[in-house]
Write a structure and sequence with these properties.
Strand order of the largest sheet: 1-2
Order of helices and strands: HHEEHH
Number of strands: 2
Radius of gyration: 16 Å
Helix content: 40-55%
Structural class: mainly alpha
């Protein structure tokens, strides 16, 4: 019926659905609207790239989603973006990283 395990791509996809909702397949943007949304999202990516101590941009999309967003720019830690983790891990809280 399907796979028996969950992989990193499944986790990233579910994370995106929680954040932005599912893709709105019926929404049609004009070419001008697509261009405006693309410039807007690239602006987010440029600001993220120029700031210190921020997560790198891992995805930019101009596909409308059910959250009402016409697009979004996602930033994730390098390890998660590369898919280095081959199994689900408990997210580390800040207190877990601080050494006493």
């Amino acid at each position: 019926m399907g796979r028996q395990t969950v992989n990193q791509e499944d986790l990233l996809t579910s994370f995106e659905v929680v954040i932005a909702g599912t893709e709105k397949k019926g929404t049609v943007l004009t070419d001008i609207e697509k261009r405006i949304v693309a410039y807007h999202e690239v602006g987010h990516a440029l600001v993220a790239a120029l700031q210190k101590h921020t997560q790198p941009v891992s995805k930019i999309t101009i596909v409308p989603h059910t959250s009402g967003a016409l697009g979004y720019t996602m930033q994730m830690p390098r390890r998660a973006a590369r898919g280095a983790a081959h199994h689900a891990r408990r997210p580390r809280r800040r207190a877990d990283r601080v050494r006493h």
